[in-house]
Amino acid sequence: MARRKKVYEGKAKILYEGPEPGTLIQYFKDDSAPTAEEPTPAAVDGKGVLNNRLSEFFMSGLNAIGVPTHFIRRVNMREQMVRMAEILPLEVVVRNFAAGELSTRLGIPEGMALPRPIVEYYYKDERLNSPMVAEEHIVAFGWANQQDLDDMVALALRVNDFMSGVMLGVGIRLADFRLEMGRVWEGEFMRLIVADEITPDSCRLWDLRAAGEREGQPAVDPAPLPDVYTELARRLGVLPSNVTHTTKPTLIN
Questions:
Q1: How confident is the model at residue 239 (pLDDT cuts 50, 70, 90)?
Q2: Maximum distance among all Cα pairs of the chain, rounded to whole angstroms
Q3: Which helix (H) or strand (E) holds 138?
Q4: Mind listing the pLDDT tens digit for each residue in 119-153?
Q5: Neighbours of 243 (CB within 10 A)
Q6: pLDDT of residue 34
Q7: Residue 180 belongs to what H/E stretch?
Q8: Number of C-alpha atoms within 13 angstroms, CB side, residue 242?
Q9: Quick check: 54 and 66 in contact, CB under 8 A?
Q10: pLDDT tens digits, 189-220
Q11: What CA–CA distance (Å, rounded) separates 102 from 104?
């Protein structure tokens, strides 16, 4: 079999040249991205398989409701074919509940529902620890233009509506999550699409069943979803029968 050309390798994924023009093969690794709690996390057997299935589930769902993504199809247990896109150097974070850095920065109790979903931007540079930036920075430094920003907010909020509903349906609260977006050309027109992945690595998930949340009464102490990859896949019905493990998600700051 011909050796594939590696295009990019990150902490959790490898990108290879795709079999068709304008495509890539995205390979999900078992490695976990470092966090403040675990600067050097160990690899977890089966994590890549589950994240491949979960990202397929969410991306396919978004495509079905008209939210454009880079996902084309799953190739095998660890790989999927995606559209090649010019990835913006930004992480888009949508927050529904106070947690992590937001609670620390603004002194808001963790678990408190926000008045409305809040969209934040972070500049993707690990040397700088991906600092939070304002729209003025983004436009001034040419990372995106104002139309891009408007499209990014619209896409992020549509993803939030879809993801929040899906999670709530299986007893999970989506506190916040992180997205990456890219540009693709369709004829003479450019559009933004959701890229990278949507997995527990990019979401903060709270288990409503464990927290004992009753309708209309949010949990006082948010409870992280135990065994997050396996449990989320099980509740969504996408768990491969040959994968079992226990681990924690990578939380957003």
A1: confident
A2: 57
A3: helix 135-140
A4: 999 999 989 999 999 999 999 999 999 999 999 99
A5: 17
A6: 54
A7: strand 172-186
A8: 3
A9: no
A10: 899 999 999 999 999 999 998 755 545 555 45
A11: 5
- 251 touches 202 (CB < 8 A): no
Q: Are the CB atoms for 106 and 77 separated by under 8 Å?
A: no
Is the pLDDT confidence value at 247 over 80?
no
Region of 230 (left: φ > 0; alpha: ψ -120 to 50; beta: rest) is alpha
Tokens 């808001």 locate to 108
Which DSSP string do the residues of 106-128 spell out, in sequence order?
HTPPTTPEEEEEEEEEEE--GGG
Cα(first)–Cα(last) distance of the chain, in Å?
A: 42
Mean pLDDT of 228-240: 91
In contact, 89 and 127? CB cutoff 8 Å: no
* Cβ-based neighbours of 151, under 8 Å, separated by 6 or more: 191, 192
Distances from the Cα of 177 to the Cα of 58, 91, 96, 184, angstroms: 13, 10, 9, 23
Cβ atoms < 10 Å from Cβ of 75: 15
Buried b (16+ CB within 10 A) or exposed e, 132-157: ebeeeebeeeebbeeebbebbbebbe
Q: Backbone dihedral region of 124: left (phi > 0), alpha (psi from -120 to 50 degrees) or beta?
A: beta
* DSSP string across 17-43: E-SSTTEEEEEE-S-----SS-SSPPP
How does DSSP classify residue 88?
A: -
Question: What's the burial of 56, exposed, middle or buried (CB within 10 Å: 0-12/13-18/19+)?
Answer: middle
Helix%, strand%, coil% for the chain, nearest 5: 30, 30, 40
